[in-house]
What we know:
It is built from two helices and no strands. By secondary structure, the protein is mainly α. It has a domain of 89 residues. The protein starts with a helix and ends with a helix. The mean pLDDT is 90.
Amino acid sequence: GEHGRGFAVVADEVRKLASRSAEEASQIRHLVNNNVARINEGEALVATTSDTLEKIAARVQQVATLVDEIATASHEQSAGVEQISHAMAQLEDVTQQNASLVEQVATASRSLDDQAEEMTTLVSRFRVAEISPRHSQQLAYS
Length: 142
């Protein structure tokens, strides 16, 4: 009797406890599976982030290389512009010298023109007698 009922009550409580334990174990298994899935997702995100950071680092290195190349090219271009500026200054000096020489040549040409005109005037004052061909031969051999 009483022991049987007591045993039945204990057995019922054990069954309920076993049922709750099974449910709790199922929930714990579900939570563990969720945590494992999240850990896997986190691991995948870390791997993706690592790859992305490596790509960013490579791009930053490429940009740094390009900036160095641009700086070098700018330096070279600046030197080239300076050389061109120097050459232009020399060209201007030569052009001014040429202009001065042209002015001197023009002055000399005018002077020669004036002298030639003066000579023509002086020569035109002289009267030369005509010489016979025979007399011209005698003058040539004497």
